[in-house]
Design brief:
Number of strands: 18
Largest sheet: 11 strands, mixed
CATH architecture: Sandwich
CATH superfamily: Exo-inulinase, domain 1
CATH class: Mainly Beta
Number of helices: 1
Distance between the termini: 43 Å
Order of helices and strands: EEEEEEEEEEEEEHEEEEE
CATH topology: Jelly Rolls
């Protein structure tokens, strides 16, 4: 077993998807061996057997959500894919996000949510922002004034059945213009059309979440991003 600790400052099924748009060759975000190119809180993140592992404990709990943040440049419109496995708690993949606390590695922005209870997995949650934008099975259109119009395209419980508990699953995020689509194991779980210019994000960082609360372990591998071309 190989394990590398990160230093504190280490550098479809239901709806037509923008994933069908022309895309470039993928950018590999994680090399499978070290946390080169990422930064996060010391002692919480490591690489074990080819996967990024985030761990919290009951004996030394974290007081707020914290993130492992990717340092490299990212395209504006993209398809992001990652394999994840969660053992307790709540996590998520941040994208088009901004750093609000560099010392604590805290992010604000869109989140492709993941949780072991499968209550929130697949939803779109805006961390430190507008909260839940679309639940699993929802398509939300946000107007310029912030008013939300929701459409149900699938049953949340039924969609949750595609997620394999205690196993590796694939999360895919398609962000093209103001349309944000989440997929787990090839099935779309939520969609947001964000037309609120004062709050909608068109670019930003990618990060992986460790959630405050009970002890948890989350693992990520095969993180890649493809630019979606016009």
């Amino acid at each position: 077993m190989r394990c590398f600790l990160v230093p504190a400052l280490a550098l479809l099924t239901f709806h037509t998807s923008f994933a069908d748009s022309p895309a470039s060759e993928p950018i590999v975000l994680f090399n499978g061996e070290s946390l080169e190119g990422w930064r996060g809180r010391s002692g919480l993140w490591s690489v074990v057997d080819g996967a990024i592992v985030g761990t919290t404990t009951d004996s030394d709990p974290i007081k707020g959500n914290t993130f492992l943040i990717y340092n490299g440049e990212l395209p504006t419109n993209f398809e992001l894919t990652a394999q994840f496995l969660i053992e307790g708690g709540n996590s998520g993949i941040q994208y088009r996000s901004k750093v609000v606390d560099e010392k604590g590695f805290v992010l604000s922005g869109y989140q492709a949510d993941i949780d072991v209870a499968l209550k929130f997995a697949g939803i779109n949650y805006e961390e430190k922002g507008r909260g839940i934008l679309a639940l699993r099975g929802e398509r939300t259109t946000i107007a310029e004034d912030g008013k939300k119009t929701k459409e149900v395209f699938g049953d949340a419980a039924k969609l949750g059945e595609v997620i394999k508990g205690g196993q590796w699953n694939e999360f895919r995020v398609v962000a093209n213009g103001n349309r944000l689509q989440h997929f787990i194991n090839g099935t779309m779980t939520s969609e947001v059309i964000d037309g609120e210019p004062a709050k909608a994000a068109t670019q930003g960082v990618v990060g992986l979440q460790l959630h405050a609360g009970p002890a948890m372990v989350v693992k990520y591998k095969d993180l890649k991003i493809r630019e979606i071309k016009p």
